[in-house]
């Protein structure tokens, strides 16, 4: 990836290098920390221009050169205040780490990327410096000490941690339904942010980093702020964050419970409060890998995570944005412990959509994946409420829902489960099959229904005939009831029409 970045940037300073797109209407604006419009602080100036001897590691005199992490530069900054430092190849090996620290401190300066014409030269210098840091981090040999780690984390924090201010969008109305724009908002500072994220990724993955020392700086506060960035509207940023979080989870074992707990809290807020978050799919991708590595038998903590967090994630309306990743996490649990299938299926039934046909198709897709990993004992525990719900789906007027429910019989494992439990299942779904066979409007649904009826008839003709006789008997009893109900409504309408001009109560014998 870093080779691609280098290939795009010429070594000489050019107007286009590092320049963001000037179209700011679709860009996400970021609200940085306080002190956003200050000039480059004198402390940073001193750090950049200080000799190597002053910046010796561990020297107390370095404190006076620490940068102001919130400093920015405006359009009137003199170019002389922000000049490129020599390359790592141009200094002796003994001074490379000192130069590394100077470059890191230099990259703490923040620029205004909402105006592409501001500080063009300085932005190009900073980007080239960041690329040099990435290259050095990749090829460095020798352990990094605490001072370097502290400076690196401070520089990364100054660049990537920010509050998101969503840009207002014009929603379109189609047939009275509000639709959001599909185009995600891109961060205008991405040309620099990308290199900072690449640097952080190389830092976390580096074999020269001692996790016992690094955990003092990549601490809970840093991790929590990193998780907050997952709400970015820029998918490129979320992709980097996903990879970095996965590396942190793997390297810093001490942070694992905290990371899981913090992600849980974000999910709770999303499900039960806001139903708005841009990074749910990326979180679930990371969790899918984590769940895959759970040791057996599963801890009670992990089972509670399934019941209290993953299953309720089926509730929000925007399920389609992360359903594939959620389904993977759910099926991982079933494969780890087949006894959880009953809990999962009952959870799906609990959150089953009533009026959202698109979401119901997603539920049926996930249900098939879960049933494919379900064993007979767990299937028998939940088959009654399950096939009551499938029966309702079979009679759906939305042809995709009914068709998807009928496709369950195309799965060999599910078909085998149904065969062995046909005496319980067929009486439940027979009325739905009979109604579809008689008068469903969609030809494909009608044809699939006839195939399923034939499947049951060939499997057990006696059971099929018994269910058919019971259905006809129930139908004959239902006709008088329906006629009485229609007659009652007719009399009620007649009485109401006569007394429409009065305020008398309408009594119907």
Task: Note the main attributes of this structure.
509 residues; mainly alpha; two-stranded antiparallel ribbon; two-stranded antiparallel sheet; 21 helices; 4 strands; elongated
Short recap of the structure:
Pfam families: B56. By secondary structure, the protein is an all-alpha fold.
Overall description:
The chain has 509 residues and is mostly helical. It has 21 helices and four strands. A two-stranded antiparallel sheet has the order 1-2.
Q: Average pLDDT across residues?
A: 82
Q: For the largest beta sheet, what order do the strands appear in spatially?
A: 1-2
Beta-strand share of residues: under 5%
Distance between the termini: 81 Å
Q: How is the biggest beta sheet arranged?
A: 2 strands, antiparallel
Helix and strand run: HEHHHHEEEHHHHHHHHHHHHHHHH
The helix/strand class is mainly alpha
Rg calc? 32 Å
Tally of individual helices: 21
What overall geometry do the principal axes of the alpha carbons give? elongated
- Into which percent range does the helicity of residues fall? 55-70%
Total number of beta strands:
4
Q: Looking at the chains present, what oligomeric state does this protein adopt?
A: single chain
Question: Runs with pLDDT <50, length 5+?
Answer: 5-80, 169-179
Family: Belongs to the phosphatase 2A regulatory subunit B56 family.
Main location: cytoplasm
Biased composition (Low complexity): 17-30
Organism: Perilla frutescens var. hirtella (Perilla citriodora)
């Amino acid at each position: 990836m870093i080779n691609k970045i280098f290939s795009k940037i010429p070594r000489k300073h050019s107007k286009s290098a590092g320049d963001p797109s000037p179209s700011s209407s679709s860009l996400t604006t970021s609200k940085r920390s306080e002190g956003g419009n200050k000039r480059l602080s004198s402390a940073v100036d001193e750090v950049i221009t200080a000799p190597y001897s002053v910046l010796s590691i561990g020297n107390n005199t370095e404190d006076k050169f620490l940068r102001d992490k919130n400093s920015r530069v405006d359009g009137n900054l003199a170019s002389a205040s922000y000049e490129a430092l020599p390359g790592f190849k141009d200094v002796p090996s003994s001074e490379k780490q000192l130069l590394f620290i100077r470059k890191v401190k230099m990259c703490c300066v923040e620029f205004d990327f909402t105006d592409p014409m501001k500080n063009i030269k300085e932005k190009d210098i900073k980007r080239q410096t960041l690329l040099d840091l990435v290259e050095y981090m990749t090829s460095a040999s020798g352990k990094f000490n605490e001072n370097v780690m502290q400076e690196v984390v401070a520089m990364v924090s100054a660049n990537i941690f920010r509050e998101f201010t969503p840009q207002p969008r014009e929603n379109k109305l189609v047939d009275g339904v509000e639709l959001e724009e599909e185009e995600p908002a891109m961060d205008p500072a991405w040309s620099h942010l990308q290199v900072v994220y690449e640097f952080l990724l190389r830092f976390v993955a580096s074999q020269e980093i001692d996790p016992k020392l690094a955990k003092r700086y990549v601490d809970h506060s840093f991790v929590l702020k990193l998780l907050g960035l997952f709400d970015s509207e820029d998918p490129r940023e979320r992709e980097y964050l996903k990879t970095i979080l996965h590396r942190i989870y793997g390297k810093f074992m001490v942070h694992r419970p905290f990371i899981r707990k913090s992600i849980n809290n974000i999910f709770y807020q999303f499900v039960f409060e806001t139903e708005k978050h841009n990074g749910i799919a990326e979180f679930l991708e990371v969790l899918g890998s984590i769940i895959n590595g759970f040791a057996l038998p599963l801890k009670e903590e992990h089972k509670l995570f399934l019941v209290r967090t993953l299953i309720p994630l089926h509730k929000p309306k925007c399920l389609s944005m992360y359903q594939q990743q959620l389904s993977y996490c759910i099926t991982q649990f079933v494969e780890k412990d087949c006894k959880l299938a009953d809990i999962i299926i009952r959870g799906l039934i609990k959150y089953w959509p009533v009026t959202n046909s698109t979401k119901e198709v997603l539920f049926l897709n996930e249900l098939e994946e879960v049933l494919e990993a379900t064993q007979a004992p767990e299937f028998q525990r939940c088959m009654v409420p399950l096939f009551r719900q499938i029966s309702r789906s079979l009679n759906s007027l939305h042809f995709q829902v009914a068709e998807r429910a009928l496709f369950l019989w195309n799965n060999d494992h599910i078909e085998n489960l149904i065969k062995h439990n046909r005496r319980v299942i067929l009486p439940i779904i027979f009325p739905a099959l009979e109604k579809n066979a008689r008068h469903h409007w969609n030809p494909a649904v009608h044809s699939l229904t006839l195939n399923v009826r034939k499947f049951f008839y060939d499997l057990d003709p006696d059971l099929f005939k018994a269910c058919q006789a019971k259905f006809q008997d129930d139908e004959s009893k239902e006709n008088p009831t329906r006629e009485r109900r229609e007659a009652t409504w007719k009399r009620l309408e007649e009485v109401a029409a006569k007394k429409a001009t009065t305020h008398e109560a309408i009594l119907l014998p």
